[in-house]
Amino acid sequence: MLFTKLTSCLVSLFALTACTVAVVLPSRSELESRVYPRATEPIQSGLVFTIHNVKADTVVDLSAGDNKTITGWSLNGGKNQQWTTIWTGESWNFQSVETGLYLGFTGTAGNGTNLTVASTPTAWDIWHDTVNETNYRIFAPNTTVNWDLWGYGDAISGDPITLWGAWSGIHQTWRFVQGMHSIYLLML
Ligand SMILES: *[C@@H]1O[C@H](CO)[C@@H](O)[C@H](O)[C@H]1NC(C)=O
Ligand SMILES: *[C@@H]1O[C@H](CO)[C@@H](O)[C@H](O)[C@H]1NC(C)=O
Ligand SMILES: *[C@@H]1O[C@H](CO)[C@@H](O)[C@H](O)[C@H]1NC(C)=O
Ligand SMILES: *[C@@H]1O[C@H](CO)[C@@H](O)[C@H](O)[C@H]1NC(C)=O
Ligand SMILES: *[C@@H]1O[C@H](CO)[C@@H](O)[C@H](O)[C@H]1NC(C)=O
């Protein structure tokens, strides 16, 4: 009797776990282009990257002036342009090497919402661009808005990075270049 109860409890526990996992896991087609840590992906948890806009070649920059504003800026090797990618088991966080703050946004994820940083992590989904698989798009989870360098990818330093509905513009796509940090470690 006890054994039966235990077994049915275990079975329901197992079923619950299996059910939860099934809900969280992306579908098969998503697995083919959505980025999560796996051997074939350059993006892994705990690595440091500069993130280059494909159109402008400026990088995601945390303002040294206020430690808050996120814009595209020409590459200068500063830690305020370096981001650690952290996998949470479901999505990604981007943590500033300079301040430890996380890339996020204020308010609702819509067209023109500026990126900013906060002390609490924001979840992001990284996807391969479907046109050029070596480039990436970063989406607010469960939305159609992704990172967009303002003004169709204006290359001027200080150009805001916002969320915008995904369309084919390459100023919405990004290149991840692994940072000095790991090169330095290799040299040790
Ligand atoms: C996105 O949707 C999935 C599936 O409904 C859910 O598990 C996940 O928590 C959602 N993510 C966010 C950040 O809301
Ligand atoms: C930004 O953060 C860095 C690192 O925490 C700190 O050294 C610097 O003084 C801060 N700058 C401003 C303007 O708050
Ligand atoms: C894909 O984008 C990269 C830049 O990230 C570029 O070097 C490469 O030429 C592009 N490939 C094609 C087929 O356009
Ligand atoms: C986004 O940032 C730019 C400047 O960086 C500013 O002009 C604009 O008003 C901001 N947009 C919102 C909705 O706050
Ligand atoms: C946001 O931008 C996308 C792409 O330009 C557009 O299709 C969509 O209608 C816009 N959404 C709103 C609410 O303006």
UniProtKB/TrEMBL annotation:
Point out the signal peptide segment: 1-22
InterPro entries recorded: Ricin_B-like_lectins, Ricin_B_lectin
Q: Which UniProt keywords apply?
A: Signal
Keyword Lipid biosynthesis included in the entry's annotation:
no
Domain spans labelled Ricin B lectin: 45-116
The question of whether Cytoplasm is a record keyword is answered with: no
The molecule here is called Mannanase
**Source organism of this protein record:** Lentinula detonsa
